[in-house]
Amino acid sequence: MSFTDATSPYYYHPIMFCSNVETASRLIPEVKNTEEWLQMVLHEYFHAFQFNHKNSINYLADSIALSVDSLHGYYRRNNWFRDYLKMETEYLLKAIDAQA
Fold it and tell me: Among 73, 75, 97, 100, which has the minimal tally of Cβ within 10 Å of its Cβ?
């Protein structure tokens, strides 16, 4: 998404590009199987849900200056960040199971 280019079709509108599990496992060696890949996909879909709410996307635009590259770097360099994301994903999966 873009917060700076008002002419972009992604201006304040998130879009998710998703690679297949094979590509993801090459780029992120920790992703070893379809289940781990799917957790990443669900995690990102949850952000898309969040950003469809005006207050959430406005908060992101006003407060957080992160790019995909910087987030990927945090994930690779910081165990605490990677562990936090995995824990968050587990909670999201539990929430989905609770609704079933």
Answer: 100
**Structural domain boundaries of the chain?**
21-99
CB neighbour list of residue 28: distance below 8 Å, 6 or more residues apart: 40, 75
pLDDT tens digits, residue range 42-95? Answer: 888 888 888 888 888 888 777 765 555 666 777 888 898 888 888 888 888 888
Q: How far apart are CA 25 and CA 36, in angstroms?
A: 9
Alpha carbons 85 and 30: distance in angstroms, whole number? 13
What whole-number distance in Å separates Cα of residue 21 and Cα of residue 38?
8
Strand-pair partners of 11: 2
**Half-sphere exposure of 47 toward its Cβ, with a 13 Å CA cutoff?**
16
